[in-house]
Structure formats: C-alpha cells, structure tokens
Write a structure and sequence with these properties.
This protein is an alpha/beta fold. It is about 30% helix and about 20% strand. Helix 1 packs across helix 15 and helix 7 packs parallel to helix 12. Bound molecules: flavin-adenine dinucleotide (FAD) and NADP nicotinamide-adenine-dinucleotide phosphate. Flavin-adenine dinucleotide binds next to helix 1 and strand 4.
C-alpha cells in the first residue's frame, strides 16, 4: 500500500478531471493523483468519426477559459507542435474531435500524476483520520490502495440502451458509443436502422451516406422533427456561471420542467450537420444517385425480435397510432447516455447527500457530502442544469472545486457575464 496521503485523488480521467489535473499542477502545496480504468486516455473513441467537430469554440480547451496563461492551453500545444501560425490562418470555429483527443493526450503526457489501467473498485472513509481509501485494480489484476483527503469523481456517463435492446443481446444491435469499433459488421450490413435524433445519430447517418455501396438506411426518431440545436449567441448566455447560479436556486420540480424545455440548448443536431445531410441527399438526387433512405419522425420503436438472422422492428407512429414492422440487418442505437451513481460513491453510505428521488444532492460547489470532501464532475444535471456535460464550463467547475478544496480563491470564477438577467 502507498502510505502517502494525497490532498486530492481524482477518479476518472476524462476531459473534466484531466482539466482539473492541469489546473492543480501549478499549485505546489496541493498533492494530487488521478486514476483511470482505461489503458490510456481516449475520448469517446467509438465516435471519433473523421471530420466531426466539437460543439464548443476551440477556446474551450482544458484550461484557457479560467487560466489563459496555463502551459496546458491549446495554444501552447500548437506552439510546441510548431503549428500556431498555420492555425491563425486555418482559424476554425471548433476543433475536430480527433484533434481534441490528440491535444488531451498531449496534456496527459505532460503530467506525471496520472495512472491509467487503474480502476477504482470501492472506497471507504476513516472519519477519525478524515482519510478516504480507494481500492483499485491495476490492469484487471494487482490491487493497490490510494489514500486521499478529498476525492473528485469524474467517471462520466454510460451508454443508454432502451429496455427492449438491453434484453436482445445481439451483435446486430450496436450503441453509437461503439460505432467505429463495430465498423466490420456495419460495413457488411446492407440495411441499417438508426434510432434517435441527437448529434450522434446525425453524425452516423451522415457518415453512412458517404459509403460508396449505399446501404439502405432508415432513421427513426420519436421526436416530431429532427431538431436543430439552438445556437444563437444570446442562447449561449445560458452556458454561464450566472445561469448555473440561477438554476441551482430553483425548486426541484421547476428544475425538472426547465431542463425538459431547454433540451435543444444541448441536445439536438447542429444546424450545419442537418443542412449538410439535406444537401448530400439533394446533390445525390441531382447526380442520379437514388439514396435508399427513409427518415421517420414521430416514430417509436416498441419492440425488436430476431427472426431468420434479421431483426424485426416494431414501430408505432405516435400521432396516428399506426403500427408497422420493418426488418433490418443492423440497428444502431443513438439513444444517448445516462449518469449512474458509481459504486465507489454508493459505498460511502450516509456520508453522501441524496435527494428524495435518490439522486445525488450536489452542493453549489459540486461537493456531494456535508463536509465538502467528495466532489463530482458531470453528475449534476438535475441540480445545476444542462451545462453539466458542457466542455466549455469544465474549467469553471474545476476552478470552483479547487477554490473549495483550498479554502481560498486561487482561480477566478466569473460572474456577471451575461446581458440577460435570469432571476
Ligand atoms: C460522442 C460525444 C461527443 C461529445 N462532444 C461534446 C462537445 O463537442 N462539446 C461538449 O460540450 N460536450 C460534448 N460531449 C459531452 C461531454 O462533454 C463529454 O461526454 C465529456 O467526455 C465528459 O467528460 P467526463 O470527464 O465527465 O467523462 P468521460 O469523458 O466519460 O471520462 C470518464 C472517465 O472515467 C473513467 N472511469 C469510469 N469509471 C471508473 C472507475 N471506476 N475507475 C477509474 N476510472 C473510471 C472512464 O474510463 C473514462 O475515461 C460529448 C459527448 C459524447 C458522448
Ligand atoms: N460532435 C459533437 O460534438 C457531438 C457528437 C455526439 C454527441 N455529442 C453530445 O453528446 C451528448 C449525447 O448525444 P447523443 O446524440 O449520443 O444523445 P442524445 O442527445 O441524448 O440523444 C439521444 C436520442 O435518443 C432518443 N432516445 C432516447 N431513449 C430512447 C428510447 N428509449 N427510444 C427511442 N429513442 C430514444 C432521444 O429521444 P428524446 O429526445 O425524445 O429523448 C434522442 O433523440 C449530447 O450532449 C451531444 O450534444 C456531441
């Protein structure tokens, strides 16, 4: 056992805890360690579709929006790679996702306190010594114990499968998070059905349209239309600490209703992608290519069964009530991601605060206990609002967490940055 007691242990090294590691790096009197179950850093590797871009400005890197002078900034990465002048000419609105992944790997390579291949299995708390012990499995074998005074849990969300898919256990049913890993069976399929109408569905449909063999493509969504994400500058003001302050103070049932209404501030498909899909279909027709596609809105999948090596999908039109059965080779479920409270948090029992629905009752500073010892990243959609998964606000949340851990304001946390008043 490592006898050292760290000030902070981060569990999970996605972009949020990686950003935390970068922002903690210059704080000399704070000892930190970060672990991740994966063998190396990789950001949603199953969805690194060539050409797909981030949905935030390139300025929203791991650190810049809190500390532009940080050596972990994207601009410093460009400087080191000798690409900064070219970038000034290239000047994209957003980075490609593969480039963001490369940049994060570069940031990892600069830090000596990140341990990959290390999965947190359980966690206990010694209330006398005020120390947490995390039991970890290294590369699925050897056990190690890590001890720390504060914990930041950044384990991300998990792919969500509707119940009818979960029971199916078929290699013909693929979640979007596994899209590139499943490229072999997808390549072979000549008839594919995509379910869902978020950005993942749009990107996969668009990618499959480019396949020279033109598989037959059905795209099914229960939504009444393919919604474009709302991307006006005034709407981006909701992605701000000011809005988080406002949302946090609302009663729980008001929060729930507002979250539903704000869905298209963070879900839906980017307008550029929707337009490009339309143009591709139109240009295909112009060139005499008859894409075998059907796009079905207002349509729910109510059941799927395996039949003669195919999948038989039962569809229900939500307005007319009509049902229809369709067969397909492969179903790609772009049904999103859910947050599951991790076992290491559940194991802490009464130390952790829950609301009456059993969800984590995160405090404004992202801690989930009474004593500000356990913090979460991207687990507070229901308490802090739709900004929880937003990469642009990652540095802000990390600044709040670091300031809370230190007990003084090391980093600035912007307020008063919106022209709109929310309350
Ligand atoms: C395909 C996709 C694209 C997205 N693009 C954008 C975008 O452009 N802009 C935007 O604002 N948001 C985007 N998001 C939303 C969000 O910002 C990302 O999901 C982001 O990766 C969340 O970061 P995270 O650190 O919370 O979690 P993750 O990136 O999911 O990382 C969590 C890490 O925790 C590790 N882990 C889990 N359990 C354990 C354990 N027990 N022990 C050790 N390690 C563990 C995992 O291995 C993983 O590496 C996107 C989401 C998806 C799915
Ligand atoms: N380029 C990028 O930056 C990029 C790429 C991919 C994803 N992302 C981000 O990552 C997050 C996740 O995106 P996502 O597209 O994977 O998921 P998502 O935005 O949550 O969309 C999930 C879709 O699946 C549907 N759905 C959920 N459960 C269903 C069920 N049981 N039956 C039928 N349909 C169901 C949803 O319908 P309802 O709307 O009715 O719930 C929705 O259309 C989003 O914030 C997105 O912006 C970003």
């Amino acid at each position: 056992m490592d006898t050292k007691i760290y000030d902070v242990a981060g569990v999970g090294i996605g972009p949020f805890n990686l950003g935390l590691a970068c922002l903690c790096h210059p704080i000399k009197d704070l000892s930190t360690i970060f672990i991740d179950a994966k063998k190396e850093f990789s950001w949603h590797e199953g969805m690194l579709i060539p050409g797909s871009t981030l949905q935030v400005t390139w300025l929203a890197d791991l650190v810049t929006l809190v500390d532009p002078s940080s050596k972990f900034s994207y601009l410093n990465y460009l400087r080191e790679k000798n690409r900064i002048l070219q970038f000034g000419i290239y000047e994209p609105a957003s980075l490609t996702r593969t480039e963001f992944n490369r940049y994060c790997k570069w940031a990892c390579s600069k830090l000596s306190n990140l341990y990959f291949g290390t999965e947190a299995i359980s966690m206990t708390y010694d209330s006398n010594k005020k120390v947490f012990t995390i039991r970890c499995s290294v590369n699925g074998g050897k056990e190690v114990l890590i001890r720390a005074k504060k914990i930041v849990v950044g384990v991300g969300t998990k792919p969500y499968l509707p119940q009818w898919a979960d029971v199916l256990k078929s290699n013909k049913v693929i979640h979007s998070s596994n899209y590139l890993a499943a490229s072999d069976p997808i390549e072979k399929a000549n008839d594919i059905m995509i379910v869902g109408s978020g950005q993942s569905a749009g990107e996969i449909f668009n990618h499959l349209l480019d396949r020279p063999s033109h598989p037959s493509l059905s795209w099914v969504t229960r939504n009444r239309q393919l919604f474009a994400m709302e991307a006006a500058k005034m709407n981006y003001e909701f992605t701000s600490p000011d809005f988080i302050d406002y949302f946090f103070r609302l009663p729980d049932d008001t929060k729930e209703g507002l979250l539903r209404k704000q869905k298209y501030l963070y879900k839906g498909i980017s307008q550029d992608l929707l337009n490009s899909i339309y143009d591709k279909l139109y240009e295909g027709r112009q060139e005499g290519v008859n894409f075998p596609v059907q796009i079905m809105t207002n349509t729910n999948v109510v059941g799927v069964r395996q039949s003669k090596g195919q999948l038989e999908v039962e569809l229900l039109h939500r307005q007319t009530g009509r049902t229809n059965k369709q067969t397909t080779n492969t179903l790609i479920l772009c049904t999103g991601y859910h947050y599951n409270i991790p076992e290491i948090v559940k194991g802490l029992g009464k130390l952790i605060k829950y609301n009456k629905e059993g969800k984590l009752a995160a405090n404004r500073n992202y801690s989930i206990d009474l004593d500000n010892r356990v913090f979460v990243q991207n687990a507070e959609l229901h308490t802090h609002g739709f900004n929880a998964p937003d990469l642009g606000l990652g540095p802000y949340r990390n600044a709040v967490i670091i300031n809370s851990i230190l007990g003084y304001d090391y980093y600035p946390t912007d307020t008063g940055t919106t022209f709109q008043r929310f309350s």
